[in-house]
Structure formats: structure tokens, C-alpha cells
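Write out C-alpha cells for tRNA (Cytosine(38)-C(5))-methyltransferase.
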Amino acid sequence: MSQIKALEFYSGIGGLHLALSCSNVPAFVANAFDWDQNACDVYSANFGPGIARKVDISTLTAAHLATLKATLWLLSPACQPYTVLNPSAKGELDPRAKSFLHLVQNVLPELAHEDAHPTHFLVENVGGFETSSTRQVLVSTLHNLGYTIAEFLLTPLQFGIPNSRLRYYLLAKRSPLSFHDLPSGEGETLRHIPGRGTKLWVDSRLAPAADSNAIGDDSVREIREYLDPEPVEGCSIPDKILCKWGRLFDIVLPSSRRTCCFTRGYTQLVERAGSVLQMNENQDTTMVFDEFLQAQSSTVEAIDAVRILDLLRLRYFSPDELLRLFSFTPLAPHDSTKHAFTWPEGNFTKDQVSSNWK
């Protein structure tokens, strides 16, 4: 069987490329496109030169893409226009949605007119995309061009990974290809992958008396399995951040079985940007913060009050820990299914690209 040739749009540091290479699908990524040069450099360091290039995707044309003769498209467009974490998200009116709509509304129909459109299609985005007008445009266009689609909302927790990042996935196959064994055909957004069980993951904090048939915390790995074995340098949280915003952090323990969604603003923003670690599990987080806030509201200098929080040993996750958490690198060094991820030499740090996981 000949290998499937793929194009990767909004490629980031190569998440979909890595997923494809770890699958049993006989396919390879021939070209990848992203606007971020740092991300392209990391991509090239790990998957080889000449694949990823910096480009404004809204400038790509059907004529050019037709010459690449790819039958699989992998797309992970900007999620900021659709995320439920952003109450002012503008959907298709957001300028960051422009390039994806260009591909869907202009490029894809032009390719179809020349019978040069891909046979397989994968779109990945944030939970919230499924209710957007952009999704309606996407689905309508695919149906008009003869594609059969399947849609999913999945979280890493369902696969034993301690991260609650809900993601939307759309798969499409061009006629006469179709999907088999979908529970109720098109029109339903599935919360599981057919053939891999029908159980849903239930957050025990929100539903402590959940259905016994649901998947709970005990099926998810502890965070400690993803942590660096040695003390991590450069991951401390500045005192001024702890003084002003520390109470807003999502704080997890090494024994915890969840982290919240990590965003591009991790280490730069506090609320809704990603979890931080409390390395001292022998201290009660609430009690220590209450003591800190009481001292802060008294005559104690802020710089002295923040020393109370030292008991918790709070820190950020390191870039290498995040790579493990998002399955870019294996938990076990002997795991040959994933390669050791490398960082290229250059004038940027891991932190500048560590949230561009796509």
C-alpha cells in the first residue's frame, strides 16, 4: 500500500505530525505551514528540514496546493476565536479565523472543481468550536463537496492523561469513502472513539455520585509520573506574582490526576493559563493561603508575607514536563514509540514555544 501524502496547516511544533507518525496509518507529512518562525524551527529540528515553513496561510492558493498532490489535510487553526475561556471571543469575526475560512470557503471548492481536493480531512480545535458559525461553514462546505464527516469532543483524561483540555475533532472522508460503525451516523458529536469503549470521563469533583459505568479519576495517571526527576531550575513563580495573583492559580499536587488547559500565556498570565505545582504535599493549600492573606492584610510587608507561601514550594511546570504531559516525549526512556524531542539552538527559550503544541 502506497503512503498517504499529508499537508499540515497551523503546524506549530508538530503535534499532528507526531500523532500521525505514531499511528498505524501509512502516511507522511510532506509540507507544513505556520506563521510562527520559532515553532517552525522546533518543527524542523524534530522532523527534518524543508517540511515546515513560515507562511501567512490566508495567502495560500488552490493552484499552489494542487501542485503538492496531497490527499490528507491536517488542520489545527487558531482556537482563540472560539474558546469558552474567552467571554469576548468573536468567532469568525476574529481576524485569526480569516485564514481557516479562506481555506474552507475559497481554496477547497477551487480544488474540488479541478478534482484535486483531499480524500481525507482532520480538523482539531478547542471545545466551543462545535457551536461556532465557523463550524457551520466548515460542515456545510464539506457536505456540498461530497464528504462524510464524524465529529468528536474528547479530553486527554479519557486516555489516562492528567489534563482536562477538551478538544473538538472533525474527520472527513471524500465520497465514495465513508465511516463504518458510527453509533448513530452523522449529526451527533461523539464523546468517545467508536471501538474504544463507550464510557465517558466524569469529573468526580462535579459529580461525586457519578454513574459507576463512567470513567473516573482512578483511571488517570498521577502527575508525578510526568515530572522531572531532579529539581527544576527556572520554574519558580516570582514573588510579585504570588503577592498579587497567587490566590487565582489553579494549584495541583504531584498526586493529582488532572491539570487544566495550558495556553500560550502560561508563565505570563495567571488565571486560565495553566496549572502550577505545589511540590509540598504535606501542607494544606487553603490554610497556608489564608495565613498569607491575613498577614498581607496586616502591617506585615508584602515581601515578608509572601515567605509564608514558601512552605508550599509552588512552581511552574517545566517545558520538558509539558512535553511529557502532551505525549510529545515518552514517560519511559525505553519507549520506542516516540522519539526524544529536541530543542534547536537559537535566540529563543523553550518557554516561547512550549505552549504552541499543535
